[in-house]
Specification:
Layout: E1 3-14, E2 17-28, E3 32-36, H1 43-51, E4 58-63, E5 69-72, H2 84-92, H3 96-104, H4 111-114, H5 122-135, E6 140-144, H6 152-164, E7 168-172, H7 176-182, E8 185-190, E9 193-197, H8 201-236, H9 243-255, E10 281-292, E11 295-306, E12 310-314, H10 321-328, E13 336-341, E14 347-350, H11 352-355, H12 364-371, H13 378-387, H14 404-417, E15 422-426, H15 434-446, E16 450-454, H16 458-464, E17 467-472, E18 475-479, H17 483-505, H18 521-561, H19 565-595
Parallel strand pairs: 3-7, 3-8, 5-6, 6-7, 12-16, 12-17, 14-15, 15-16
Antiparallel strand pairs: 1-2, 1-4, 8-9, 10-11, 10-13, 17-18
């Protein structure tokens, strides 16, 4: 077991904060490590140090001679106009067939591989970046929040990839379910100290809490003993006959020390809006159509939600989850149908289009005072602000100088301090660390109102959801099962897809092929040419089918008004000929589409 990267006695300050304080770390060649810590603890700074992009003030970094780091960056590395395939070839300097082969492991093909990469969603762009990493043949992956903006299907695909990746990895994430599925060890950065735990995140969090509870009990015992000794000393030190005993007790008192309890931040506490529970229907829609003037996302939506439900909106990225949420809160006009909220409903919204439009003239504390209940105390305001990382002088910062993440947290704080009896939340866990997500989950579980939300965090979904609404293939429907049932169905789809691809290529799911079984460059280029030819034929057929439909409709309209029997017979024959041609085209289209 070789040590790929080692950090020794590292000291690093960032402004007034000590990020690393005599910290040590060893990363070995076959272990995947989940890296956690509170927001602002310095995780990104440590990654920059390990990558050589930032320097230590003291200490050293030792690299194994064979170290090859693959770093998944959050920034955009793409050139305008280039395709995913162009990027992979430019970034890796590998031939087209090899880039296409690796891209296939992440289901990148067709328009996703050959269309403009900048037009892809964040999740698909992450797949492109992961394929690029693999082409560099790294033996240590560093992934910084890889699940941000990834839908469930892509997360599962990434998990499968990491489980089959036989090298080391250091993964920064707030997603507890993802870390549990991929990492065998846990690293925590807290108050400048690095702690490596030889187990998964769940056992680590339990161990950490047990250790803190043990320290609290020991400290309570020590404090009681200190008081007892102090009373004896004060009572007996002035008496000549007991002065020597008092001096002995004083030495014992000096030796008694309490243990510093390692908590890197005050305990996070959140409270949900205080509302009265209600009965009956909170929201109803009938034959609703959502989308945009030139893009109908979903239609024929009929839903009914009851007061007190916590409805999880699920589905792949790009299917329309956010469009649905924006429509039901009147941020987006419905294309058709009707929807209605129950009497006395007050809606609170957390979404990107909301937290980017905060009043920039307010300070943090002024925003919270403005949006909170009238009976909210100053202490409650400060406690909520502190839970979301606004402490001390930060509460007087103007909204206009806050980062996107800070604005998002401020919006969340104001929402929770308000009096909304319906919360509509789009990705509420983004910008929050593990402890804060846990506190938010507990607050929402005790909330007496209704919650409609989306999230990519499976742990959070399991904790909160009482019903599931699926957005898929142009429809929105109640999913008849709980979130775990939905999760199992998606995992099965991903597994089936991987088995099918493996069967087609003659390999095993997720395995790396030997050089003798790899697709040759010639075969790959032939496959690409065939695929392009098929796609072109499909597009031409679609145009032909649309034209034939229009022609048939026109002839049918003529038949309705035609009075001459001979002319009507001629029209009938033309329609029959069109129908035969249309049937042939549709049959060919179905054949090609099923082969894709």
């Amino acid at each position: 077991m070789a040590v790929l990267l080692q950090l020794r006695e590292a000291y690093k300050r960032f402004g007034d904060q000590i990020v690393l304080d005599n910290a040590d770390l060893s990363l070995v060649d076959d272990v995947k490590v989940g890296f956690i810590g509170r927001n602002g603890a310095g995780k990104s700074t440590l990654l920059r140090v390990l990558l050589g992009e930032d320097e230590l003030e003291q200490g050293e970094i030792i690299q194994h001679p064979s170290l090859r780091i693959g770093y998944l960056r959050q920034h955009d590395p793409f050139v305008p106009g280039e395709s995913a395939l162009d990027f992979l070839m430019r970034d890796s300097e590998q031939p087209e067939w090899r880039c296409g082969e690796v891209a296939g492991q992440f289901e990148l093909k067709g328009e996703y591989l050959e269309g403009p990469v900048k037009s892809l969603s964040g999740g698909w762009q992450t797949r492109v970046k992961l394929a690029a990493l693999l082409l560099h043949d790294p033996n240590l992956l560093m992934l910084d929040e890889p699940t941000n903006f990834l839908d469930l299907r892509t997360q599962i695909l990434l998990e499968h990839f990491l489980r089959e990746f036989r090298q080391a990895a250091l993964i920064v994430s707030h997603d507890r379910a993802f870390l549990k599925a991929t990492c065998s060890q846990t690293l925590e950065l807290s108050r400048g100290k690095l702690t490596m735990f030889p187990g998964k995140i769940g056992p680590f969090l339990e161990y950490r809490e047990e250790r803190r509870e043990h320290d609290r009990r020991v400290n309570a015992t020590v404090a009681a003993k200190q008081k007892q000794l102090q009373r004896f000393i004060e009572k007996n030190r002035a008496n000549a006959s007991t002065a020597s005993q008092a001096r002995s007790k004083a030495k014992q008192l000096e030796r008694l020390q309490t243990t510093e309890i390692q908590t890197d931040e005050p305990t996070v506490y959140m409270r949900a809006p205080r509302v009265e529970p209600r009965q009956g229907t909170v929201f109803r829609c009938n034959e609703l159509a959502i989308g945009y003037p030139k893009n109908r996302v979903a239609d024929d939506i009929t839903l009914e939600l009851e007061h007190g439900q916590r409805a999880a909106i699920v589905g792949d990225n790009g299917q329309g989850k956010t469009t649905l949420l924006r429509t039901i809160v009147d941020s987006l006009e419905p294309l058709d149908g009707e929807m209605k909220w129950g009497y006395g409903v007050e809606i609170g919204t957390y979404a990107q289009h909301v937290y980017t439009s905060l009043d920039e003239r307010h300070t943090v504390i002024e925003h919270l005072e403005y949006h909170s209940n009238t009976d909210t105390t100053r202490q409650e305001l400060l406690a909520m602000a502190g839970s979301l990382l606004f402490r001390d002088d930060q509460i007087n910062k103007k909204v206009k100088v806050l980062s996107g993440g800070e604005r998002a947290r401020l919006c969340m704080a104001g929402l929770l301090l308000g009096n909304a009896n319906v919360l509509v939340l789009d990705e509420p866990g983004n910008h929050l660390d593990v402890e804060t997500v846990e506190a938010l989950a507990e607050a929402l579980q005790s909330y007496k109102g209704t919650v409609i939300f989306t999230s990519h965090d499976r742990y959070f979904m399991r904790r909160i959801a009482t019903c599931v609404i699926e957005v898929r293939d142009g429809s929105v429907k109640n999913y008849f099962g709980d979130y775990d049932t939905y999760l199992e169905s998606v995992e099965k789809e991903v597994d089936d897809g991987e088995r099918d691809r493996a069967a087609q290529s003659g390999g095993k799911p997720g395995s790396s092929k030997s050089s003798s079984s790899k697709t040759s460059a010639e075969d790959y280029r032939k496959n690409v040419r065939d695929q392009r030819k098929t796609e072109k034929e499909i597009k031409n057929l679609e145009k032909k089918i649309a034209r034939l439909d229009d022609d048939k409709r026109g002839l049918n309209n003529q038949m309705l008004t035609e009075t001459d029997p001979d002319a009507a017979m001629k029209l009938h024959e033309q329609i029959k000929s069109l129908e035969e041609e249309l049937a042939t085209a549709e049959e060919r289209w179905l054949e090609l589409s099923s082969d894709e």
